[in-house]
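Q: What would this chain look like folded?
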Amino acid sequence: MSDLVTARLVLHPMTVDEAERVVAGESDDGARWAPGYPTDGDVFAARRFLDTCANTGDPRPFGNYEIRRREDDRAVGGVGFHGPMDENGSVTIGYGLVPSARGRGYASEALRELLLFARAHGVTCVKGDADHDNTASQHVMTAAGMRPAGEDERVRYFEITWTGTTADTGPRP
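A: My prediction, written as structure tokens:
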């Protein structure tokens, strides 16, 4: 599977070997990790990806993607799907960046690309959530075209829904 490329980022689809290294916190000689990578969230996502691979097979293209800066090819975070598309065409996403990469628009850029990718692969609804006090993450989802879809005592929920094909003039991320 090919990398997804944006103006400033490369979203690299993780392999099992790469996910195992993230969980172990040990990069290989070729991996270039920014300071602070992987975060606890990256390790959690890599474990979920490995569990999915072990239990139901590789979920790609609906797996994890390492976010790398194009300028230096350093991994600065991750973005991905919590699993394959369900019977209604819906997926749930998550993302995160190392602290030194935050505040530069990387998360919004990565999420926009992932939303375009999801739509091109037949997804009709993408869902995400953020803790009430995580206004930065809420802003990322809104900036990428997702809209508030409810909340509970812990989190605010966001989603974007499309009907028809990508040629429709409906909402675009």
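The chain has four helices and eight strands.
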